[in-house]
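Quick illustration for those who missed Monday's session on complexes.
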Amino acid sequence: MHAKAPPSGKIGLAVLISGRGSNLQSIIDACRIDGFPAEIKVVISNIPDAYGLVRAQNADIPTRIVSHKDYTNKTDFEQKILGILDEFSVDLVCLAGFMRIISPVLITPWEGRIINIHPSLLPKHKGLHTHERAIEAGDTTSGCTIHYVTPGVDEGEIILQRSVPILPDDTPDTLAARVLEQEHIAYPDAIRRMAAQISKSA
Ligand code: GAR
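Prediction with glycinamide ribonucleotide bound:
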């Protein structure tokens, strides 16, 4: 468990992204709601032109780019991220479409304080192409999962899930859109729960 105590009032978030950042936007929007128990301290992207960086800048949130391509090994890449997390008094790390598999170098110091969103009802359909696989498997339900990050990919304890039906004429794109609407509810909800837990343990 990370040793830091939360600041009084709101917990500090780091949001890690790789792309369009619609989940980041849902967290930005939630943080604007009166009484929401968290604020985003920094957005970190491994992709220099990720649109999520624009969303963060539009909300006056500090951004950092840590491109994996600038590092010859994963340890140095993750050490750089660890340094940024320390710089910004972060209490909770939120992976929101961060498309790198991370190792214990980054996970262990943040164990219990690093969470991810995955677009399936875990333990079903870990990894990529979840919507194609849910349809191909003949599933009638899909959804999203917020879970703790552990070294096993998409294997950490589940914090919450939200379900949607899979309709007979669904394509991966139509299903992805239906799941994404639920993702945007799930992430702020999970952060509320985590904030309550972090405050209790402080
Ligand atoms: C989301 O659907 C998220 O669940 C998924 O990437 C998308 C990011 O969208 N994450 C994963 O697949 C992680 N394995 P966003 O950039 O618009 O938030």
